[in-house]
Please model this.
Amino acid sequence: MTVITQAAFIRWLEVFADYIAAEKDHLTELDSAIGDADHGINMARGFQAVLLKLPTLADLDIGAICKAVGMTLISTVGGASGPLYGTLFLQMGAETGGKQALSLAEWAAAFAAAVQGVQRRGKALPGDKTMLDCLLPAVTALNAAADQGLPLDQALNLAEQAARQGMLATIPLTARKGRASYLGERSAGHQDPGATSAHMLLQAAVQAWG
Model:
Protein backbone atom coordinates (compact mmCIF):
# COMPACT_ATOMS: atom_id res chain seq x y z
CA MET A 1 0.00 0.00 0.00
CA THR A 2 1.40 3.39 -1.00
CA VAL A 3 -1.54 5.55 0.10
CA ILE A 4 -4.18 5.12 2.80
CA THR A 5 -7.50 4.92 0.99
CA GLN A 6 -10.87 5.69 2.52
CA ALA A 7 -11.65 1.96 2.64
CA ALA A 8 -8.31 1.26 4.31
CA PHE A 9 -9.04 3.96 6.87
CA ILE A 10 -12.31 2.27 7.78
CA ARG A 11 -10.44 -1.02 8.02
CA TRP A 12 -8.04 0.59 10.53
CA LEU A 13 -10.99 1.55 12.74
CA GLU A 14 -12.36 -1.98 12.54
CA VAL A 15 -9.01 -3.51 13.49
CA PHE A 16 -8.57 -1.07 16.38
CA ALA A 17 -12.06 -1.93 17.64
CA ASP A 18 -11.09 -5.61 17.51
CA TYR A 19 -7.94 -4.92 19.55
CA ILE A 20 -9.95 -3.01 22.16
CA ALA A 21 -12.54 -5.79 22.41
CA ALA A 22 -9.86 -8.46 22.78
CA GLU A 23 -7.89 -6.48 25.37
CA LYS A 24 -10.84 -5.02 27.29
CA ASP A 25 -10.15 -7.02 30.44
CA HIS A 26 -6.41 -6.29 30.29
CA LEU A 27 -7.03 -2.56 29.94
CA THR A 28 -9.46 -2.63 32.85
CA GLU A 29 -6.97 -4.59 34.95
CA LEU A 30 -4.28 -1.98 34.27
CA ASP A 31 -6.75 0.77 35.16
CA SER A 32 -7.77 -0.98 38.37
CA ALA A 33 -4.24 -0.49 39.70
CA ILE A 34 -4.05 3.29 39.19
CA GLY A 35 -7.44 4.51 37.95
CA ASP A 36 -11.16 3.85 38.11
CA ALA A 37 -11.02 0.28 36.73
CA ASP A 38 -13.16 1.23 33.72
CA HIS A 39 -10.81 2.06 30.82
CA GLY A 40 -11.31 -1.21 28.99
CA ILE A 41 -15.06 -1.21 29.58
CA ASN A 42 -15.43 2.38 28.41
CA MET A 43 -13.25 1.97 25.33
CA ALA A 44 -15.00 -1.25 24.32
CA ARG A 45 -18.39 0.43 24.62
CA GLY A 46 -17.23 3.40 22.56
CA PHE A 47 -15.73 1.38 19.75
CA GLN A 48 -18.65 -0.99 19.62
CA ALA A 49 -20.72 2.13 18.93
CA VAL A 50 -18.20 3.14 16.26
CA LEU A 51 -18.48 -0.28 14.60
CA LEU A 52 -22.26 0.05 14.48
CA LYS A 53 -21.93 3.48 12.86
CA LEU A 54 -19.29 2.57 10.25
CA PRO A 55 -21.75 1.22 7.63
CA THR A 56 -23.36 4.67 7.51
CA LEU A 57 -19.98 6.31 6.87
CA ALA A 58 -18.89 4.21 3.90
CA ASP A 59 -19.46 6.96 1.31
CA LEU A 60 -17.90 9.81 3.28
CA ASP A 61 -14.43 11.28 2.94
CA ILE A 62 -11.80 10.51 5.57
CA GLY A 63 -12.28 13.81 7.37
CA ALA A 64 -16.01 13.29 7.72
CA ILE A 65 -15.45 9.74 8.95
CA CYS A 66 -13.05 11.01 11.61
CA LYS A 67 -15.48 13.66 12.80
CA ALA A 68 -18.31 11.13 13.07
CA VAL A 69 -16.07 8.76 15.02
CA GLY A 70 -14.96 11.56 17.33
CA MET A 71 -18.52 12.61 18.12
CA THR A 72 -19.54 9.00 18.69
CA LEU A 73 -16.73 8.50 21.18
CA ILE A 74 -17.48 11.71 23.05
CA SER A 75 -21.11 10.66 23.45
CA THR A 76 -20.50 7.03 24.44
CA VAL A 77 -17.14 6.73 26.26
CA GLY A 78 -17.08 7.65 29.92
CA GLY A 79 -14.30 9.17 32.00
CA ALA A 80 -11.42 11.07 30.45
CA SER A 81 -11.08 8.66 27.53
CA GLY A 82 -14.15 9.93 25.68
CA PRO A 83 -13.06 13.57 25.44
CA LEU A 84 -9.44 12.63 24.70
CA TYR A 85 -10.07 10.02 22.02
CA GLY A 86 -12.93 12.12 20.69
CA THR A 87 -10.59 15.08 20.36
CA LEU A 88 -7.99 12.88 18.66
CA PHE A 89 -10.43 11.96 15.89
CA LEU A 90 -12.01 15.40 15.61
CA GLN A 91 -8.61 17.01 15.09
CA MET A 92 -7.66 14.28 12.64
CA GLY A 93 -10.88 15.05 10.79
CA ALA A 94 -10.04 18.74 10.61
CA GLU A 95 -6.77 17.86 8.85
CA THR A 96 -8.24 15.34 6.41
CA GLY A 97 -11.45 17.04 5.29
CA GLY A 98 -12.45 16.20 1.73
CA LYS A 99 -9.71 13.60 1.27
CA GLN A 100 -10.42 10.13 -0.13
CA ALA A 101 -6.83 8.99 0.37
CA LEU A 102 -3.78 10.04 2.37
CA SER A 103 -0.09 9.88 1.53
CA LEU A 104 2.38 9.11 4.31
CA ALA A 105 3.16 12.83 4.65
CA GLU A 106 -0.55 13.67 4.90
CA TRP A 107 -1.13 10.92 7.45
CA ALA A 108 1.86 12.05 9.52
CA ALA A 109 0.55 15.64 9.52
CA ALA A 110 -2.97 14.55 10.45
CA PHE A 111 -1.74 12.28 13.22
CA ALA A 112 0.51 15.02 14.61
CA ALA A 113 -2.39 17.48 14.64
CA ALA A 114 -4.58 14.92 16.38
CA VAL A 115 -2.01 14.31 19.11
CA GLN A 116 -1.52 18.05 19.56
CA GLY A 117 -5.27 18.30 20.09
CA VAL A 118 -5.11 15.64 22.79
CA GLN A 119 -2.25 17.47 24.45
CA ARG A 120 -4.19 20.75 24.47
CA ARG A 121 -7.30 19.03 25.82
CA GLY A 122 -5.56 17.05 28.57
CA LYS A 123 -2.84 19.61 29.33
CA ALA A 124 -0.34 16.78 29.87
CA LEU A 125 3.39 16.84 29.19
CA PRO A 126 5.82 14.06 28.25
CA GLY A 127 6.62 12.07 31.36
CA ASP A 128 3.25 12.71 33.04
CA LYS A 129 2.33 9.01 32.60
CA THR A 130 -0.47 9.42 30.06
CA MET A 131 -1.34 8.30 26.54
CA LEU A 132 0.89 11.12 25.27
CA ASP A 133 3.97 9.20 26.40
CA CYS A 134 3.00 6.68 23.72
CA LEU A 135 1.61 9.03 21.07
CA LEU A 136 4.32 11.71 20.98
CA PRO A 137 7.16 9.26 20.15
CA ALA A 138 4.96 7.80 17.39
CA VAL A 139 4.47 11.30 15.94
CA THR A 140 8.23 11.87 15.96
CA ALA A 141 8.86 8.55 14.23
CA LEU A 142 6.19 9.15 11.59
CA ASN A 143 7.43 12.63 10.81
CA ALA A 144 11.01 11.40 10.49
CA ALA A 145 9.93 8.57 8.20
CA ALA A 146 7.93 10.96 6.02
CA ASP A 147 10.88 13.38 5.82
CA GLN A 148 13.13 10.51 4.74
CA GLY A 149 10.66 9.33 2.11
CA LEU A 150 10.38 5.85 3.60
CA PRO A 151 7.69 3.43 2.39
CA LEU A 152 4.41 3.52 4.30
CA ASP A 153 4.79 0.05 5.81
CA GLN A 154 8.26 0.82 7.13
CA ALA A 155 7.06 4.13 8.58
CA LEU A 156 4.17 2.43 10.33
CA ASN A 157 6.44 -0.17 11.87
CA LEU A 158 8.82 2.50 13.16
CA ALA A 159 5.90 4.44 14.66
CA GLU A 160 4.54 1.32 16.34
CA GLN A 161 7.94 0.49 17.81
CA ALA A 162 8.29 4.03 19.15
CA ALA A 163 4.80 3.85 20.61
CA ARG A 164 5.57 0.53 22.29
CA GLN A 165 8.73 1.93 23.85
CA GLY A 166 6.78 4.97 25.06
CA MET A 167 4.08 2.75 26.53
CA LEU A 168 6.59 0.61 28.43
CA ALA A 169 8.40 3.73 29.61
CA THR A 170 5.28 4.72 31.57
CA ILE A 171 5.79 1.83 34.00
CA PRO A 172 8.38 3.49 36.29
CA LEU A 173 6.84 6.96 36.02
CA THR A 174 4.91 8.72 38.77
CA ALA A 175 1.62 9.99 37.37
CA ARG A 176 1.15 13.75 37.29
CA LYS A 177 -2.17 13.90 35.45
CA GLY A 178 -5.53 12.19 35.71
CA ARG A 179 -6.94 9.84 38.31
CA ALA A 180 -3.60 8.07 38.70
CA SER A 181 -1.96 11.28 39.94
CA TYR A 182 -3.99 10.97 43.17
CA LEU A 183 -1.84 7.98 44.10
CA GLY A 184 1.43 9.91 43.95
CA GLU A 185 4.45 7.63 44.22
CA ARG A 186 2.21 4.57 44.41
CA SER A 187 1.39 5.03 40.72
CA ALA A 188 4.97 4.08 39.83
CA GLY A 189 5.49 0.50 38.73
CA HIS A 190 2.25 0.28 36.73
CA GLN A 191 1.80 0.58 32.97
CA ASP A 192 -0.52 3.41 32.01
CA PRO A 193 -3.79 2.07 30.55
CA GLY A 194 -4.27 5.07 28.25
CA ALA A 195 -0.83 4.61 26.78
CA THR A 196 -1.66 0.93 26.32
CA SER A 197 -4.83 1.57 24.33
CA ALA A 198 -3.03 4.30 22.37
CA HIS A 199 -0.34 1.81 21.38
CA MET A 200 -3.10 -0.35 19.92
CA LEU A 201 -3.89 2.48 17.49
CA LEU A 202 -0.43 2.03 16.01
CA GLN A 203 -0.62 -1.76 16.12
CA ALA A 204 -3.91 -1.59 14.24
CA ALA A 205 -2.39 0.70 11.61
CA VAL A 206 0.41 -1.79 10.99
CA GLN A 207 -2.10 -4.61 10.62
CA ALA A 208 -4.53 -2.65 8.45
CA TRP A 209 -2.05 -0.77 6.25
CA GLY A 210 1.31 -2.49 6.55
User: Anything to note?
Assistant: The chain has one domain: 4-209. The chain has a mean pLDDT of 93. The CA atoms of residues 22 and 44 lie 9 Å apart.
